[in-house]
């Protein structure tokens, strides 16, 4: 029975690494997979999912407003798909999460989404909020704060390393822009609590 999965974490927890390993496991057993990532995230190159540890795979992309049910249905008409993997799932729109759920239900294909739960302000991304509501199974990919506690939050830094507490929810970046922290250290970094 197919399910909609949401693997979530903060930045630099290894979500893309876990996705790539899972996709490899399917292919190693002779099963075809379908990889998707956000069209506007070109850090690894357009249409590519890559991990900080150096592994990567080509992927199809999704764009705002695109019908993902139709996209998956079209892909499945050209050959069997054992599992769909979606990286940067926080960038999905609410309707797109429903389209993925519909693909699970009506096309009987498992869909594994990987993404951030919250942004640098501590707010849910719209795609993540919808995945938290609709997913059949959720799994946390864990990483740690500099203090050793589990990191659940992320701060955004400017070019000078100063913490940014306002601005657009989406700004593509990596280790030079984002730092994962536990909630206590996130509050301290954002001026909400003593160190």
List the keywords.
195 residues; three-stranded antiparallel sheet; 24% strand; six-stranded parallel sheet; Rossmann fold; alpha/beta; elongated; single chain
Structure description:
- This protein has 195 residues and is an alpha/beta fold.
- The protein has one domain: 3-Layer(aba) Sandwich (Rossmann fold), CATH 3.40.50.300.
- 28% of the residues lie in helices and 24% in strands.
- It has five helices and eleven strands; from the N terminus they run βαββββαβαβαββββα.
- The chain has helices at residues 15-28, 68-77, 94-107, 126-134, 183-189; strands at residues 4-9, 33-38, 48-50, 56-58, 60-62, 83-86, 111-116, 137-140, 153-157, 163-164, 178-181.
- It has a six-stranded parallel sheet, sandwiched between helices. A three-stranded antiparallel sheet has the order 10-9-11.
- A hairpin with a 5-residue loop joins strand 9 and strand 10.
- Helix 2 runs parallel beside helix 3.
- The protein is elongated.
- The termini are far apart.
- The model has no long low-confidence stretch (mean pLDDT 87).
List the helices and strands and how they pair.
Layout: E1 4-9, H1 15-28, E2 33-38, E3 48-50, E4 56-58, E5 60-62, H2 68-77, E6 83-86, H3 94-107, E7 111-116, H4 126-134, E8 137-140, E9 153-157, E10 163-164, E11 178-181, H5 183-189
Parallel strand pairs: 1-7, 1-8, 2-5, 2-6, 6-7
Antiparallel strand pairs: 3-4, 9-10, 9-11
């Amino acid at each position: 029975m197919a399910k909609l999965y949401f693997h979530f974490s903060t930045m630099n927890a290894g979500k893309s690494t876990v996705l790539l390993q899972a996709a490899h496991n399917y292919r190693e057993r002779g099963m075809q997979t379908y990889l998707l990532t956000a069209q506007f995230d070109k850090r690894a190159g357009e249409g590519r999912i890559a991990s900080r540890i150096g592994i990567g795979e080509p992927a199809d992309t999704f764009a705002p407003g695109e019908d993902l049910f139709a996209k998956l249905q079209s892909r499945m008409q050209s050959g069997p798909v054992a599992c769909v993997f979606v990286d940067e799932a926080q960038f999905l729109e609410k309707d797109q999460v429903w389209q993925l759920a519909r693909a699970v239900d009506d096309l009987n294909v498992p869909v594994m989404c990987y993404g951030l739960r919250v942004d640098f302000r501590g707010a849910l991304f719209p795609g993540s909020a919808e995945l938290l509501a609709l997913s059949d199974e959720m799994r946390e990919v864990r990483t740690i704060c500099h203090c050793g506690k589990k990191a659940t939050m992320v701060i955004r830094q400017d070019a000078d390393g100063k913490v940014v507490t306002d601005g657009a929810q989406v700004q593509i970046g990596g280790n030079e822009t984002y730092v994962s922290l536990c909630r206590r250290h996130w509050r301290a970094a954002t001026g909400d609590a003593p160190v």
